Amino acid sequence: MNVWRAAADLARAGTPGAIATVARVRGSTPVPSGTKMLVGAAGRLIGSVGGGCVEADVIGAALEAQARRRPALVTHHLNADLAGDLGLSCGGTVDIFVEPLLGDDAYIRVLEAAASAESGVVRTAVAWEAGGGPVKTFEPLPPDSARGEPATLSRDGRFVVERLIVAPRVFVFGAGHVGAAIGRAAAAAGFRVIVIDDRAEYADPARFDSGIAVLAADVEAALDRYPLNAADAVVIATRGHRNDALILERVATSPAGYVGLLGSRRKKVVVTKGLTAAGVAAKALKRVRVPVGLAIGAVTPEEIAVSVVAELIAWRRA
Fold first, then answer.
1. Of the residues 106, 141, 165, which one is the last residue of a structural domain?
2. 189 and 53 belong to one structural domain
3. Burial state string for 152-176 with b = 16 or more CB within 10 A and e = fewer than 16
4. Do 21 and 154 fall within a single domain?
5. Per-residue confidence band for 83, with pLDDT thresholds at 50, 70 and 90
6. Do 118 and 161 contact (CB within 8 A), yes or no?
7. Rounded distance, CA 240 to CA 263, Å?
8. pLDDT tens column, 1-16
9. What end-to-end distance do the CA atoms of the chain give, in Å?
10. CA separation (Å) from 253 to 9, 157, 259?
């Protein structure tokens, strides 16, 4: 669940809570900057900032921040001995900013803006002084403008600056057992997922979590609805060679940054031969990943989904 949205809902309801944000990391740490955790009156609700005694200390600081109505900046030095005791492969320093949720309308509007924004910058004051201006602000930005570390402290140390960058879209063509499993796994890994199938009984939103978009349409209608760009990934996992070929013919030459086709190497030869004869450029077909996913010996739909999403993560992080 979106931490920003959950925090806004708590604040609107007047329920006690606090947000913990990894504001800065140095060296090797268990979580990247920008990682968030929502803490309620009884402890952690959503997310994690590393586990072990680090998280226990942060939850304690969050509960104190709720009680005092003041934020805190918590620093942990994860030396090799402590990292080993926690079972963490790290040895760096992490600064975690803990802020109590406020019932103030301006504060809640920032949480709501961040929850629904595709990109932007959230600035939160480290010290909340009476009459010192807004403690949290949001600035919407074009997607390409919000680059850099997901979170950091400003040079003067007065603000936590968070850059919200929209997650890549993953288009899964085919809502059968494998396609559905890929869609669910990709959503769990933080991608924005759109599952497409021309069979309405398969493209049924009731089969998927609310965070996954589902479209009953053929490839032409789907691409009219969702024009592809270089930040998009496409996975083709339909019910047969003919459908795969029709979709691949359209997406192989698209700007999509990742195109994968479920199937064997023999299938790649057959489909590639047919599309080459149809006039699709060899360069466009060469970039298609067939078989899609990492070679881990996957057999079941869930295992195949893990292999595909692992490859998607590698593509995203690279």
1. 165
2. no
3. bbeeeeebbbbbbbeebbbbbbbbe
4. yes
5. very low
6. no
7. 10
8. 589 999 999 999 999 9
9. 25
10. 43, 47, 10
pLDDT at position 215 is: 97
With CA atoms as reference, report the closest residue to 38 among 57, 58, 24.
58
Tokens 């403690």 belong to 135
Indicate the pLDDT class of residue 274, thresholds 50, 70 and 90. confident
Q: pLDDT band for position 82 (50/70/90)? A: very low
For residue 210, the one-letter residue type is S
Q: Tokens 């070929």 identify what position?
A: 245
Cross-strand bridge partners of residue 121:
139, 163
Helix residue ranges, H only, 189-264: 219-225, 241-251
pLDDT tens-digit profile of 161-183?
Answer: 999 887 899 999 999 999 999 99
Do 228 and 208 lie in one domain? The reply is yes
Tokens of 132: 């010192």
CB 234 within 8 A of CB 260: yes
91 C-beta neighbours (distance < 10 Å), count: 16
Instruction: Show the domain range for 29.
Output: 3-165
Residue length, the chain?
318
Residue type, 25: V
